[in-house]
Structures are given as C-alpha cells and as structure tokens.
Design a protein that fits this description.
Blueprint (H helix, E strand, L loop, with lengths): L1 H10 L1 H24 L3 H29 L1 H21 L3 H29 L5 H5 L1 H21 L6 H6 L2 H13 L5 H6 L3 H12 L5 H9 L7 E10 L14 E3 L8 E5 L2 H7 L5 H5 L8 H9 L28 H12 L46 H7 L1 E2 L2 E2 L8 E7 L2 E9 L6 E3 L12 E11 L19 H4 L3 H18 L3 H14 L2 H6 L5 H26 L5 H24 L4 H21 L4 H6 L8 H29 L1 H23 L8 H16 L3 H4 L1
Antiparallel strand pairs: 1-3, 1-9, 2-3, 4-5, 6-7, 7-9, 8-9
Helix pairs in contact: 1-5, 2-5, 2-7, 3-4, 3-5, 3-26, 4-5, 4-9, 5-26, 7-22, 15-28, 19-26, 19-27, 19-28, 20-22, 20-24, 22-24, 23-24, 23-27, 26-27
GO molecular function: transmembrane transporter activity
Membrane topology: Multi-pass membrane protein
Subcellular location: Membrane
C-alpha cells in the first residue's frame, strides 16, 4: 500500500496550503491594518475574499472534475495557490490584495473539495479512512507552522505582511511539481472515460503488483447507478468434479470471477437451513429498524460489520480464494466479447473512449478487466484444486501463477452468474456474525456432494459487463444526464447524509471555540507568563494561537489510527457527547463564578477537550463520508453540492458570530452550539451508516439497495 500512501501524502499538500493561509492571514491582518488603515468592513472583505472564492469555485469544481479529471483540477489548485502568493507578495493596494485572496480561495476550494475524492478513489478500502484523515492532519500542521513563522517575523522591528503572505508561493511551487510530475489520474475516473489501459497502469502503480484484474472489474462495475438489486444469503462451496455445462442443479449456481482455475457453487439458504444452523438473514436488518425509526440503511450497514474479521491492513483474502475464470461457463465467449466491444464503441458521452486516449485497441476497452488473453475459448477445463475441497486449506494454497489470492478489498469478493441471457454481479462477504463452516452433507437439504461451505451475504444486480440480452443483442450501459441521476433513491439518501452532516458540522461550534480560545488562555495567565519573557501582546497572541493548533495534532494521529478500526460512525457517536459536555461546562463556567483560578482551569480544560475531540471525529469525518457514499459517475457533482453547502455555512457562522456575541452573549452562543451537537448525535445515530473497509462501489450499491428496499411497500401494506 506504499504507492497509495505516497500519492495521498502528495495530494494532501493542498490542504496544508489551506491551513497555512488561514493562519497567515489571521496574523498578517494586524500589520495590513496598520499599513493601510483599513475600515472594519474592508478588513472583513479582505479575509472573506478567500471564502467567497472557495464558494464560487466549488459550485463548478465537481462537474468539471467529472469532465476533465481529478488531477487537472489539483494542478489548477496548485497554480492558483502559487499565483496568489506572488500577487500578495507584490500587492500595492487593497484591491490587488483582494484579487490575490480571491485566487487563493479558488485554490483552497478546489483542494478541500477534491483531495478527499482523489484519496478515496486511489486508496485501498482497508486504509482509506486513515489516508483521508491526512487532510485534517496536514491542514492543522500547516496552521501550526504558519503561526510559528508569523510569531518569528513578529519579533522583528518592522514585520512585513507582504512577506508573510508571499511565502505561500514556495510550498505552492512544491505542490505544483508533485501534481504535474508525480500524481497519477484517478483510476476510477479513467475507467469512467473508457481509458482502460491507463487505469490498469495506475492501479498497478498504486497496488504495487501486476495482477489488478479484480480491481479493474470492480471499477467498471462502479459505473452503474441504480437498477434493481436483491440481497441473498448463500452457502458457498468450492466446485469440484463438475462439468462446465452444469450451471444450475437443484438450486445450485456457479459463481465465476476474474481469474481462471477456480469457480464456486452457491445455493440460497433455505428456511430450514437458516433455522437449524442459526443463520440470520440480512433482510431482517432492514425490517427490524423501523420500530426505533433508525434509517434502515444504517441497520443494513451495521449488520455488515458485526464481528467482521479484521482485514489488518492487508488486501489478501482471508475468506474466499480466487473465483474461477469468467469463461468457465457454457456461454459463447467469442460472441460475448463482440457484444462488449460493440457496447463500448457506442456513442455515449459518459462511456465513450476519451478523445485523448491512446489508440492501442488491444487493452483500452471494457474487455480488458475481465477477459484474460490466456483464456479466450471453451477448450480450457476448470482445474481441480489439489486440496480436496477444504475452504480453509484453499486459503493456504489458492494462488495463480504464484500470486496470492486477492479480492476487491476489505474482505469483499465479486462473482458473476450467467442467468437468463445476462450476467448478474454478486458482491460477496462472509457473514462475520453468524458464519458456520462444515460439510454440505450435514446441512438439511444440502445435497449429497460433500465439501466445505461458507455462509455469505451477497448483493446481486445486473452487471455492467454482462451486455448479452435474451435476444443476443448488446445492452448499453446506463447513460443519461448526470442531473437526472441525482433522483435515484440511493443517491438521494446519500445526499441527505452528506449535506446534513456538513451543515451540522459547521454549526457545532468549532469557529466559536477557536475564536474564544485566546481569551480563555489569557484568562488562565498564559499571556502573563509569556510577557515575562519579554514578548509583546501581539507576539504572545500568535504564540497562543500556535499552541492551540499544536493541541490538534496528537488527537488527529489518534483519529488516523481509529478511523479504519472503530469506524467513522462509532467515532462520531462517542466524540460528539464530549463536545456537548465541553460546551455545557463552558457556559456553566461563565454563569457560575467560583474563583478566577477555578474558572480559568475549567474553561481551559473544556476548550482543550473540545478541540481535541472535534478533530478526532467531527473535523475529518464529514469530508471522508462525502467522498465515499456517491457513485463514480456523479461523485464530483455530489461532492460539489456538499462542499458548496459547507462553504456557505462557513460564511454564515463566521460572520454571524460577532453579531450573536453582542446580542446573546457567550453563554447564549455556547448554548446554541451544544443544542446543535445534540441534534448532530441524533442525526448520526439515525442516518449515518458505517462505511469502514468497504469498497466504494459496494457502499453505493448498498445505499441503492437500502433505499430501494425501504421505499418498497411492505407485505402488511399490500395485504
């Protein structure tokens, strides 16, 4: 996973620059005002231009990134940062300074919006949360280093605000070099444009191995939006001594995969088997939540994580070995290849080959992910496995040309079934809560063929790569205006989660607490301690702000460790109550006066706790969730909607804070923030699902299935 980690670190420099600029302008405004003698409204405009620029660019960044790609937009962000730094270094008047701040806002908006998307689309599921916490860490690190720089420059006789702001161009140039010469394009975006050969090379770079067939197939399947989906409980066993023509026997079905040599027999779990083996259907996860008004999608996702075997940061499969070749069926493969190729060459905006794509026709098409050049006919038989059918022993011996077995990430696997003229896609995961292993012979109604079995949950839908219809004609992949895709039930549910959590995060009080922190620390006597070292009040305030930012870094490191272990939802549910308690204690300390020392100590502890637990949960997780829950084709568009809401709320909170402080006071402001945090906890509990360790395509398919199943009329309603 080294390749994906280095790529994520390079991309996150954009967030470092945003944090750097936020701290620098806060310090530089003191000297800008002294130099230009600006009115209060103009001072606010200088600061606000960056927010305005970020809000404006966010409205179009998503659709443009879906059109041009993620990498060109990150290059544009680095150019905007670099130009704004040079212009601020030169700024002869406030008008030029405002222009520079606008360009800086463009860069910040692009980075904050697209870096999480880029990381999510390039990171393995097992460490996606950890890597997506890097923007929070580097952003806070940038703020800390910037405050250190501003503090050092404030010690000089004549600090230059132009130099403070112009330093931004140096790290921006480094970021520009990384985006141009190192960062690859998102493989998911490349697949969405039909540039398969390029996507495969990027995946090989990120994964550090040649065999990326599973990943390529998954990315192509991710082009699907909506469609009918079903959830099945299966007993899966290694196929042995079966002929190629045997596909369905007594309810059995063969599941085929992206590699040759192995396929599986699966059969639905009957009511008798479910009762005798103590297996629980995932359909109950949808129905049982209605009594407590939790979104059924939340219950469905929770059921997938119950006692789930931890991946341990490895992409190696611990559940199923490789599935068999896609060609191990009785389908006319050559005809199927033709159908896929003809499908790909159709003139569809979202799937047609990009004009700039290479002309190499050998790999750059939809056949490439699944169709091995080594297996192009029905002459090859399924090679029996030497272990005699034990699923456990297959784990140790399941290899292909010496390579270890791989799934699609996070312990998930993908299989295909040819059924009634089309291919169906199966996303499979061993049931970690009630898994049973044993002999098929011992299963009531299990047949007489013996062997090992695994109880697995499977989400089933029509495959994008299975175009052969009943009449033998190619079925075009889903197309249509991107805006119409926003009306799909799964996408709408995901937008409710994304927009809701962005709004609540901004109104949860972080801006007010950071605004109030210097006063708290001064009341605790930190300013007196610093003045004893001969520091001016301005220098002391910069140092206090730097120390406040420094508190965030260890907490973010803890969050990085827990993000893929405890999960996003769990972190939110146990960090938000700490925010509530901290805010309540803060306004109580303002109402009740014990002594100066006691009040200062209580306020300081509350502020430190609030900041640390905010950056562990509510700080990074909204952006992480928003980058995970939308389908590939509309991810940029949906992220732009969520990011626009974020920036609008940021502007509202920033400029309403002084008004609220003057009208209802600090106690009233903290009371509002505490109430919003209570609402946030309820919203997370009822609406936000757990997404740790799941491939992006699986997440979006489960959103679609959950929305489809929960909106369908129940049996009681139809009776």
């Amino acid at each position: 996973m080294k390749g994906a980690t280095l790529v994520a670190l390079a991309a996150t420099i954009g967030n470092f620059l945003q944090g750097w600029d936020n701290a620098t302008i806060a310090g530089a405004m003191v000297y800008i005002n002294k130099d230009m003698n600006l009115a209060t409204s103009v001072q606010g405009l200088v600061v606000a231009m960056s927010l305005i620029g970020a809000t404006v660019i966010t409205t179009c960044s998503g659709p443009i990134s879906d059109w041009l790609g993620r990498r060109p937009m990150l290059i544009l962000a680095s150019v905007m940062y670099f130009l704004s730094g040079l212009i601020m270094l030169w700024s002869p008047n406030v008008y030029v300074l405002c222009l520079a701040r606008l360009l800086d806002g463009f860069g910040a908006g692009l980075a904050v919006t697209l870096v999480p998307v880029y990381i999510s689309e390039t990171a393995p599921p097992e460490i996606r949360g950890q890597l997506n916490t890097l923007p929070q860490f580097l952003g806070s690190g940038g703020m800390f280093l910037s405050y250190c720089m501003v503090f050092a420059m404030s010690l000089s006789d004549a600090p230059s605000w132009r130099a403070m702001l112009g330093v931004l161009s140096i790290p921006s140039l480094v970021y520009l070099c990384f985006t141009v010469f190192y960062l690859p394009e998102s493989p998911r975006w490349l697949v969405s444009k039909g540039r398969m050969d390029e996507a495969k090379k990027v995946l090989q770079q990120l994964c550090g191995r040649e065999d990326v067939n599973d990943e390529m197939a998954l990315l192509v399947e991710g082009l699907d939006i909506g469609g009918e989906k079903t959830l099945e409980d299966l007993l899966v066993t290694l196929e042995e001594h079966e002929t190629l023509e045997t596909v369905d026997v007594d309810g059995q079905m063969r599941l085929l995969g992206t590699h040759e040599n192995q396929s599986y027999l699966a059969r639905p779990v009957t009511d008798q088997q479910q009762s005798s083996l103590g297996l629980r259907s995932r359909h109950g996860s949808l129905a049982n939540q209605n009594g407590i008004h939790k979104d059924p999608i939340v219950g469905l996702f929770d059921s997938l994580h119950e006692k789930m075997p931890e991946a341990g940061g490895s992409t190696k499969s611990g559940i199923f070995p490789r599935f068999g070749s896609t060609f191990s069926s009785s389908v006319d493969v050559k005809h199927w290849e033709k159908d896929v190729e003809s499908q790909f060459n159709k003139d569809h905006d979202d799937y047609a080959t990009d004009d700039n794509a290479p002309d190499d026709e050998s790999d750059n098409d939809l056949r490439s992910p699944l169709m091995s050049r080594q297996t192009t006919s029905m002459d090859k038989d399924v090679i029996p496995h030497p272990t005699g059918g034990s699923t456990l022993s297959m784990r140790r011996h399941s290899t292909l040309n010496g390579e270890n077995s791989m799934g699609i990430g996070g312990g998930w696997h993908m299989g295909y079934r040819y059924d009634n003229g089309e291919y169906k896609r199966y996303y499979l995961k061993e049931d970690g809560a009630e898994s049973r292993r044993g002999s098929i012979v011992s299963i009531p109604g299990g047949g007489h063929d013996g062997g090992s079995y695994v109880h697995a949950s499977a989400l089933v839908s029509r495959s994008v790569l299975g175009p052969k219809s009943v009449h033998g004609s190619a079925v075009a992949p889903p197309t249509g205006p991107l805006w119409s895709a926003l009306l799909e039930p799964g996408v709408k549910r995901a937008l409710v989660v994304g927009v809701g959590i962005q709004i609540l995060q901004q109104f949860s009080g972080i801006n007010g607490v950071l605004y109030y922190t210097p006063q708290i620390l001064e009341r605790a006597g930190v300013d007196i301690l610093l003045s004893s070292f001969g520091l001016s009040s301005i220098s002391a305030s910069f140092l206090i702000s730097g120390l406040t930012t420094l508190l965030m870094l260890p907490a973010i490191v803890v969050a990085m460790r827990l993000m893929d272990v405890s999960g996003r939802r769990a972190l939110l549910l146990w960090t938000i109550p700490v925010l509530i308690v901290s805010l309540v204690a803060l306004f109580i300390s303002e109402l009740v006066h014990f002594s100066k020392v006691v009040n200062a100590a209580v306020s300081t502890v509350c502020v430190v706790l609030y900041i640390c637990f905010f950056v562990m949960g509510y700080g990074p997780i909204p952006n992480i969730l928003c980058s995970e829950i939308f389908p590939t084709r509309v991810r940029g568009l949906c992220i732009a909607i969520c990011a626009m809401v974020f920036w609008i709320c940021d502007i509202i909170v920033t400029y309403s804070l002084p008004v609220l402080l003057s009208s209802i006071g600090l106690v009233g402001v903290f009371s509002i923030y505490a109430a919003v945090c209570v609402i946030s906890w309820v919203f997370v509990y009822l609406k936000v699902p757990e997404t740790k360790g799941m491939p992006l395509e699986v997440i979006t398919d489960y959103f679609a299935f959950g929305a489809q199943a929960s909106s369908a009329p129940s049996k009681d309603d139809t009776a």
